[in-house]
Amino acid sequence: MRSKVSMALFGLVLASVLTACSNSDDSNQQFANAGYVQFYNGSSNSAQTIMRGTEKTQILGAASYGDATSLIQVEGGVTEIEFYRTDSDDEEVIIETRDIDIPTGQKTLLMLTGDFANPTFNEFRFNREELEDHFRLFAVSVTDDQTSYDVYMSDSGAPFSAANLLGTVNYESFDELEYWAPDSDSDDFDEGSYTIYLTAPGSQDVIFESDTISFRFATEYVLVIRGSTGALQSGVEVDLVLNSSTVSNYDDINASAQYRIYNSLDNDTVTVSLDGNDDVSPSVELAPNSKTDFTEVEFGDYRLSAESSTNSELTFNNRLVTLNQGESKAILIYQNKDDVLTSVSFNESTQPQVFDKQVAAANLVSDFADVDLYFVRKDETIESAQFLIASIDPGEVKGVTLPSDFYELVAVFDDNEDTQVLLDRTQLLGLNEEQNYIITIETSDGSPTGYKISVLY
């Protein structure tokens, strides 16, 4: 008999959040009387994927790469669940429809893996237990290269030499890891702070070391090993999935970072340096309206300095730029309304840029506050445009998520009389490459309006 997905979704989401945010599972909760389902997206080239029950067509949750839905309570039995995405025309694209057996007393973790063009939907199950001062730990690898890893764990502050091997984690193989120091109360892990290490199977060479992780909830944790994406597509990351839509993500504490720099000046070459405490990087000469490629560096705090090649007074020194592990940062050089050379920096998206684009837009025009940037498709005007970044102040960067498509970009300022002033507009442009796009609104001597829109990628 096919069961129905519970309609009390708000109560269920609240219950799942309470489960993930309490010190122990509510002793009055009867796990045996219901089934539980959660969806995690582990496909590195996927779109945001939506999960719904087909009988009532209610949305159960959505997850982008590295994200999960909340834990949802359902009646035990077979439930029909559908997964889909929306395309650039806002049409639904069905990815998978399947009957899923959700046993009572168990959590069924649905996990999307592999190439999104031909994805795999895994069903992992384990019994839910009422825990007190302990937690359980499961692990799975979803890396694109299907690599296996040895997982080690140590008490917080202990080195790798004191870490304990928990087991080998293979691609799409879901296993429970065993605690190395069980006590008389439980065989499960003691709540506390730990460090996680990854090595190649049988190796003692650490390829991933987490920061200190606080396992403070008495519940089941799922450790997911996955590859990094977006602007920085190298290295391994670890996700911890609990019973809520909040997924804790951990980079290797020794991972490198990267940056790229854009010179928005129309007529000046700018010499730029980014120096750390221990070394001085070679200066880079950036021609007008040009950018560097991504440069990989060690993580840390850096001193950014820049100087015009034609005006020695057009300069700044020792501006702080922090590059954290596994982070990609864009640095934009521009002149403010006082003709002072300055900069703005921001983190670039680490999400896949295949179907959805996490676009960053910067207002480098000091003349106008609250500039609106419209993304106008071929059958739209700015009044009907679905996508807009509103009220971008000078020196501010804001973002929007767009479906891969063709857009005309229109930058508009509303003056004090509520009259719209057109700063610039582009031709119809394809924002459809697997790139991290940056859009800047700048002053320009060559533009009829004195301003221009630039698209960087």
UniProtKB/TrEMBL annotation:
<protein>
    <submittedName>
        <fullName>DUF4397 domain-containing protein</fullName>
    </submittedName>
</protein>
<keyword id="KW-0732">Signal</keyword>
<feature type="signal peptide">
    <location>
        <begin position="1"/>
        <end position="20"/>
    </location>
</feature>
